[in-house]
Amino acid sequence: MPYWARFGGLILGLAIVLAPMATGAAEPPVLTLPQLISLALKFSPEVKASKSEVQLAEEQRNEAHGYRYPQLDAIGTGGLVPNARRPEVRGGNIFYPDPANKIHGINVFGRLDFTVVQPLYTFGKIAFREEAAAKNIRVKEAGVEGKKGEVMLQVAQAYYGLVLAEQGKDAVKEARTYLSDTRERVNRLLAINSPNVKQTDSYRLAVYEGAVEKFGAEAEEGAKVAYQALKALIGYGPGQDFRVPPELPNPSQTPSSLDYYIRQALDLRPEFTQLKEGLVAKQLLVDAAKADQYPSLFFAVIGALAGAPGRQTTRDPYVYVVDYFNQTGALPMVGMKWHLDFGITKAKIGQAQAELEHLQYTQKTALMGIPVEVAQEYGKVQEYYKSSVGLEKSYINARRWLITAFSNFDMGLGKLEDIFQAFEKYGAYRGDYLMALYSYNLSVSKLDKATGGFRRSLPAEAPLVGKAK
């Protein structure tokens, strides 16, 4: 055999072996709901925006903590100043070579004044505000988790909608197969003028075919919309594709009682975490506003450094005169700062107390409303669970009915009307079953959000760089 023929056979063999591998590599990956949720949480601009609020709260806490440390205020000035020489003694009298009412040359000067203040005791002005800022961090962190719960529910809605649409497309294919088989039978029997069929059966069959096409178009468009929604949520571009599992998850009985889920909501819902931490923060701000009524004690160092090369300074020990243009020195001291006003501080205390009361009433409202919300979602889960279990039996037996109707008709024991009736029931019950299954899975996700249970399944994240401890 020629060398080129053997080489060509080798290439052909490799092509045959690698073709399935290349085809498989081209297949988009199958992404499950947890995987899609993880991608969405990493991409979500809403989640990132809420995280920036956490960083802002951390910096506010750092600002409040910074008031514990010394603060330096410095003012530097410079400009032109007349020259001046020291006075002289002439004939028993003091002679001033450069009197103040005349200018004897111009030169420059520079001066630096500084004050360093270290708080000693402020009656809680700093401590209360720092603790309140720390609580505000927890409020914002709970807000991030609340936003994650919203994104998770959005992904679940689009995901289950996409799987439902894909199953609907499969149901359309199956229905088309049944209708095609039925039309072949009808056309064959009409051609031989069989008394078992009528011309109206052909028209009735066309009605079913039209309805199936309508349902198929709805499923096709629904799949496109849900797919695009998922791509947008996870940040996939035009060239990135994926698939989802072919079937909706089967229902499972809710394992716990309603009381369990209500207790879980009170413990885990981010809104309650925000309210609890927010109430403490507001109370601390009330205490800080009250502390503003008291003085603040501090330790301070004040000093100055000034120089003017064109001016001479007198060092007379009997006359203490500070030369503004030539001075060097610092003085430590302790002091007290006390701000008094006629109604401003009192109004600020009233504002802080009003905000605290508003949050307290908000908490009471949540305690009334959230259990009702949990009960509603819990009831829907129970309802759709029972519906899906019952409808599954209905559509399975309707399919058996349809297959039996075909067999009886082929053996001459049944009527075409039996096939039509079985087809109608099978299509209706299968559609209802898929909708019940979709509603059940979506209700489980909604119950998970209503109770805060989604927080237990949040993917772990790396800590933020530079995050305050």
How is the topology of this model organized?
Layout: H1 3-26, H2 33-43, H3 45-66, E1 71-82, E2 88-90, E3 93-95, E4 106-121, H4 125-191, H5 199-234, H6 258-268, H7 270-291, E5 296-307, E6 327-337, H8 344-410, H9 416-451
Antiparallel strand pairs: 1-4, 2-3, 4-5, 5-6
Helix pairs in contact: 2-4, 3-4, 4-5, 4-7, 4-9, 6-8, 7-8, 8-9
Order of helices and strands: HHHEEEEHHHHEEHH
Number of domains: 2
Biggest sheet, in brief? 4 strands, antiparallel
The CATH topology annotation of the largest domain reads as Outer membrane efflux proteins (OEP)
Beta-strand portion reads: 5-15%
CATH architecture of the largest domain: Up-down Bundle
Individual helix count = 9
Q: Would you summarize the structure shown here?
A:
With 469 residues, the protein is an alpha+beta fold.
Describe, in plain words, how this protein is organized in 3D.
It contains nine helices and six strands; from the N terminus they run αααββββααααββαα. It has 469 residues and is an alpha+beta fold. The strands form two sheets. Strands 1-4-5-6 form a four-stranded antiparallel β-sheet, with no helix packed on it. The protein has a two-stranded antiparallel ribbon with strand order 2-3. The two termini are 77 Å apart. A hairpin with a 2-residue loop joins strand 2 (88-90) and strand 3 (93-95). Helix 7 runs antiparallel to helix 8. It has two domains: 30-68 and 123-295 and 343-457, Outer membrane efflux proteins (OEP) (Up-down Bundle), CATH 1.20.1600; 70-121 and 296-337, no CATH class. It is elongated.
